[in-house]
Amino acid sequence: MRNSTTFVICWRFPTAPELLPSDRWPARKWTSGSDVDWAFLVDGQADPEHFRIEGQIAEVFSKTEYADPGSTGTFAAMASSHELVHHVGGLEDSNQNLTRRILMLLESTSLTDRVVHERVIRAILHRYIVSDPAVSSMEEHPFRVPRFLLNDMVRFWRTMAVDYATKKWQQREEKWALRNIKLRMSRKLLFVKGLLMCFDCELSPPADELPEGADPQLVLANRCFELSSMTPLDLLCQVLSERADNQTAVEILTPYDEFLGCLHDKEKRGHLKELSFDDAREDDVFNELRTISHRCQEGLERLFFDQDEELFRLTRRYGVF
Amino acid sequence: MRPIGFSTGALAKGDYQEGLRLQLEVGVSAVELSALRENEVEILVAALSDLDLSKLQYVSFHAPSKLSEMSEDQLLGCLNEVARREIPIVVHPDIIQNPDTWRSLGRWLLIENMDQRKPVGRTAGELRPFFNLLPEARFCFDIGHARQVDPTMGVAVEMLIEFRDRLAEIHLSEVRSDSRHVAIGETAAAAYRHVASLIPETTPVILESMVAPEQIRHELEVAQSCLSSCQQDRDGHLAVS
Which chain B residue has its CA at the smallest distance from A133's CA? Predict the structure, then answer.
């Protein structure tokens, strides 16, 4: 079960998009009350017709049991691949664009033709990895942590944390506790996936020698593409099985399971939505989840710092400075 | 020297004789006989024994891209005759309905990667099931299709690495977003150079660029330059070896 995912409805020029045939919906594995972050991704020529299609998609989603996405306009809207690929950093890279781009990489699923979705993800990864080669010799270290990508993952994580405080201020504590717990758990898990994706380049370089003439940067981008299609939990579990003992896995996954259980409980979820900041300190549900998040945090620290020499080296080398 | 030439259909749609004549005039070393429409297959197969292909180093045959009148068995009846002549046959994977029957073509069956319109065969992952079911089949890599599906050429690299032992022919052209095959432009050429070193120098190349007769020589030169073994330095300058 997951707490969130981002749906992407793709537009493949010049064919009209299939409007969400029900058999293409992924099997429901989300906690009850989860919102649906969807975007109508246009990868091609601009067409006034897109506006009408966006409205049709919104109507389809409004009839589902999923909660509406947030009020920021980041999702439940049209998104252009051009902005996602070309506006990385700089003044044009808005908070909204950053969020869409990184969530595309970390947790998106295509509801229509997956080739468009994959093409945009590959183009984004190309920007980070192939278009930004390292200064030092690629021949010497072809598989190294892609710093541009890593920096944006870190930026996204810190942005989520800062935005949590901003929303608390602007939205007068509405859903404050729910956001707090999500930041401690599911949002943090997204960052864990981002870190592991970047570290994988050095943790698991290709076992076989590359064929003569193969561009290591393209091979690296392909590897990141493979990892991007894994869910954050799947990637975490893979790393846990390869680089940690059972105790660490239990320390992380048990509280995460408990967190999902709590959010799946309509009563507890509803309670958290209404909980004020002032009441939180004495609130049983909130404190239960807070303790859960501390246990998960301890497990993550153990994984990244104490379990595996190589993972520790990468965390120290790239995690802070 | 790499055998290179055009698909007859690219130069003269539906007229293989004219498509062949135009190429032989300029002295190409490879040709693909195109029967992209099903009504062309029987006529072209019947004409094979009369065609003078002696000056060519490489000849292949392109099977129809869609079947509506002809059954799969009827088509295979024709294609078995082509395979008997040891002519490689390029096939779009989406017309393969019953893979068992296609095994009769053995190594003369070349499965081509598809453009973005097709629901199958566009990526290494989508081609894999076909090669698993047809272990003797070889690979016709359409570099234009691969670039249309993924301009970063990541999909191209995946296919060229995974199917390198099966690689038998290259289709070369620029494929527009509406899937039309046109003359190779600068941006496409630059993308193709990026993966050229993964293509052996002996693999035959068939151009599918739809160009006028007076552009044939120029397109051949552009194609040669796309597939030269090039290295790009950090400033984007190309060094041809």
Answer: B234
Q: Do B117 and A15 touch (CB under 8 A)?
A: yes
Is B150 in Cβ contact with A119 (below 8 Å)?
A: yes
Structural domain containing residue B69: 4-240
The total domain count for chain B is: 1
> Which residues of chain B does A115 touch, with a Cβ-Cβ cutoff of 8 Å?
116, 122-123, 149
User: pLDDT at residue B14 above 80?
Assistant: yes
Cross-chain Cβ contact B157/A218 below 8 Å = yes
pLDDT digits (tens, 9 = 90+) for B129-167: 999 999 999 999 999 999 999 999 999 999 999 999 999
List the 16-75 stretch of B: residues with Cβ below 8 A of A: none
Query: CA-nearest residue of chain B to A136?
Result: B234
- The residue type at B186: E
Q: Give the per-residue pLDDT at B238.
A: 36
**Quick one: average pLDDT of B59-86?**
96
Complete DSSP assignment for B109-152:
EEEEPP-TTSSSSSSHHHHHHHHHH-TT-EEEEEHHHHHHH-TT
B178 in contact with chain A, both atoms CB, cutoff 8 A: yes
Looking at residue A3, its pLDDT comes to 62
Tokens of A126: 């190309």
- Cα-Cα-Cα-Cα dihedral sign, residues B122, B124, B125, B131: positive
User: For position B47, which CATH number holds?
Assistant: 3.20.20.150
Antiparallel, parallel or unpaired: β B174-175 and B181-182? antiparallel
Could you tell me which chain A residue has the CA closest to the CA of B146? A119
Q: Is residue B234 within 8 angstroms of chain A, CB to CB?
A: yes
DSSP three-state, residue B190: helix
pLDDT digits (tens, 9 = 90+) for B218-235: 999 999 999 985 444 444
Give the pairing of strands B30-34 and B109-112: unpaired
The answer to whether residue B177 neighbours chain A at the CB level (below 8 Å) is yes
What pLDDT digit, counting tens, does each position of A109-162 carry? 888 878 889 999 999 999 999 988 776 655 566 788 999 999 999 999 999 999
Q: Spell out the domain ranges in chain A.
A: 6-128, 140-318
Q: Tell me which residue in A12, A210, A218 faces B116 most closely, judged by beta carbons.
A: A12
Tokens representing residue A312 in the block: 């520790």
| Contact criterion met (CB < 8 Å) for B150 and A122 | yes
Between A172 and A168, whose confidence is greater? Answer: A168
Q: What is the pLDDT of residues A22-45, one digit of tens each?
A: 555 555 555 666 677 888 888 888
